Amino acid sequence: MNLNVGIDVSKLKLDYCGMDSNKQVCFQGEVTNTPKGAGHIRDEILKRSQQADQIIIGMEATSVYNFHPTLFFEQDDRLNQLNVTVVTLNPKVTYRYSKLFDDDKTDTVDAFHIADFLRIGRYQVPVTRDEKHIALQRLTRERYHLVHQINDCKNHFLNNLYYKVNTIDTVLPTSVFGSTMLSILSDEKYSLDDLVQIPLSALTDELNHLSHGRFGDAKSVAKALKKAIRSSYRLSKTVADSVDQVLAMYANQLRMLNQQLKLLNKSISDLCSVISGADSLQSIPGIGPVYAAGLLAEIGQIDRFPNDASLAGYAGLSWQRSQSGNHERQLTPRTKSGNQYLRYYLVEAANSVRRYDPTYARYYQKKFREVPKYQHRRACVLTARKLVRLIINLLTEHKLYTPPKLV
């Protein structure tokens, strides 16, 4: 007989319910979300451990609140002497299960439903955790959010830049987000009138000086910049001053965020070097230490995935079958659930791999040409699904990538 312990986790407390295989409640209560509170639940489990063949402890993934209780039960010495499995559940799944019953919505009832869900055994194999993977996951997940902050900041910068120079996107042969262009366009040194009046040779020299000679053709950039300013609308001084202030704010924010990203990438690379499987993933052209770390941090132990379909489903890169009678739907939408961090790193890695590996480049182009809309996004997602098969093969076999021979 199994002992199923459901725990409803919140920031301040843990509601728990112990249930046997016959749906009989063995114990139930509420404790604080502290080591003392988790220890009380452990003691309740130990009291009934002699009558249980297996003990399953399950709780929902509730932001950061379930992190400490999960580690507490996974690392407890007395529980490790028993046949104990600690499971982290998808809140969407347990919510749907609870909606099957006409019960009140309380923390106590939620703990009962979690225990009942564990009893029927439809939970997934839990992620194996260790200190290196936990540390790596903290870094790679924060990098995910930092990249989204940078993209959001860039969008705000472009929206405000349109007020100032509305034709610059069509003529400028370089990115507006380089350090030099941020300085120029945010009015930190020159106003628009100054840039128009300054001689072309002087502006070219200034661009070379600010970029430390990194512009391949500074003269063409200077010409395009002057052309964009001349062909754009002019703002009144009041509006222009406010736009310049906003642009300067976002320029400084972008510099700070990009500097933080560099430091984070370095820390990720250093830690990735001691993670098992990093060499296998980095042997794939286009996958460096950052993408390899993001993938390994979310995959954890590859042994818990029996095949590539299981790993793809965990990442949310799967399309559910829809069949009824003699009819089977050919076009089905991608599942909306899954690990968003793993999906992000898979898609980013696939977009990089297709630039370096001919096999993935051909597959990407094939999928790109199949549809008239959202071609790049769709092709990257499907290429990522193809990449999953390679990743699980390399990690399972502990080998390096060997490019296929071109016929």
Automatic annotation (TrEMBL):
Domain (Transposase IS110-like N-terminal): residue spans on this chain: 5-161
Which residues does UniProt call coiled coil?
none
Which InterPro entries does this one have? Answer: 5-3_exonuclease_C_sf, Transp_IS110-like_N, Transpos_IS110, Transposase_20
NCBIfam families xrefs: transpos_IS110 (NF033542)
Q: Which organism is it from?
A: Lentilactobacillus hilgardii (strain ATCC 8290 / DSM 20176 / CCUG 30140 / JCM 1155 / KCTC 3500 / NBRC 15886 / NCIMB 8040 / NRRL B-1843 / 9)
Family annotation (Pfam families): DEDD_Tnp_IS110 (PF01548), Transposase_20 (PF02371)
Q: In this protein, which residues make up the domain named Transposase IS116/IS110/IS902 C-terminal?
A: 280-365
What protein name does the entry list?
Transposase
Check the record and name the CDD domains matching this protein: H3TH_StructSpec-5'-nucleases
Q: Which Gene Ontology BP annotations are present?
A: DNA transposition
A single GO molecular function, which one?
A: transposase activity
